């Protein structure tokens, strides 16, 4: 099995962020390549041939040959430094950039004029709730920056969950560190910035 590689960063532009499907697809692809298949990625690091062949190992079906065994620390560190952490960093960079786009003014919002018109119309509306109890309801259109901000917030929550799960498996299989994924990622960042 070929070793996974970290996901390449997309060209970061406001248009990329506002295309929510494209943003979700990038995050999903990156997660599925690295985090969703973490067990397979870690199994690919395990080299059973180093222990020598045990003829009795063929007497019973081996469901998970790497279960309970730690992987070579150098292979684990290489996977973390070259694949896992760069992938996480790329996703963090994309989410940080898109969060910045979401909090910036958006003069190119295609629905801006429509929302302003609806808002003016709403202020002029006279409502008689006795005739139509639902007429007081008004659902203003959400600005695309608000929608993007909600998406980024949700995706950051998803990242927290996925990274925690992935780091748990990495720590278990690689003879893990006492710290959490945040500490490990920050240590890697410091190491790569030197």
TrEMBL record:
PANTHER family: COILED-COIL DOMAIN-CONTAINING PROTEIN 58, PROTEIN MIX23
Similarity field: Belongs to the MIX23 family.
Protein name as annotated: Caffeine-induced death protein 2
Species this protein is from: Aspergillus pseudodeflectus
């Amino acid at each position: 099995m070929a070793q996974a590689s970290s996901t390449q960063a997309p060209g970061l532009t406001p248009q990329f962020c506002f295309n929510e499907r494209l943003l979700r697809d990038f995050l999903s692809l990156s997660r599925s390549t690295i985090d969703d298949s973490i067990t397979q990625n870690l199994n690919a690091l395990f080299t059973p041939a180093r222990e020598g062949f045990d003829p009795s190992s063929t007497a019973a079906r081996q469901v998970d040959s790497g279960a309970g065994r730690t992987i070579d620390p150098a292979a684990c560190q290489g996977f973390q430094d070259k694949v896992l952490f760069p992938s996480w960093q790329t996703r963090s960079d994309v989410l940080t950039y898109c969060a910045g786009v979401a909090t910036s003014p958006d003069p190119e919002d295609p629905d801006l004029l429509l929302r302003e018109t609806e808002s003016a119309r709403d202020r002029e509306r006279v409502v008689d709730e006795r005739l139509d109890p639902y007429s007081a309801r008004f659902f203003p259109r959400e600005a695309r920056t608000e929608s993007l901000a909600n998406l980024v917030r949700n995706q950051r929550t998803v990242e927290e969950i996925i990274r925690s799960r992935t780091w748990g498996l990495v720590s278990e299989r690689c003879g893990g560190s006492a710290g959490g994924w945040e500490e490990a990622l920050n240590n890697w960042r410091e190491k790569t910035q030197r």
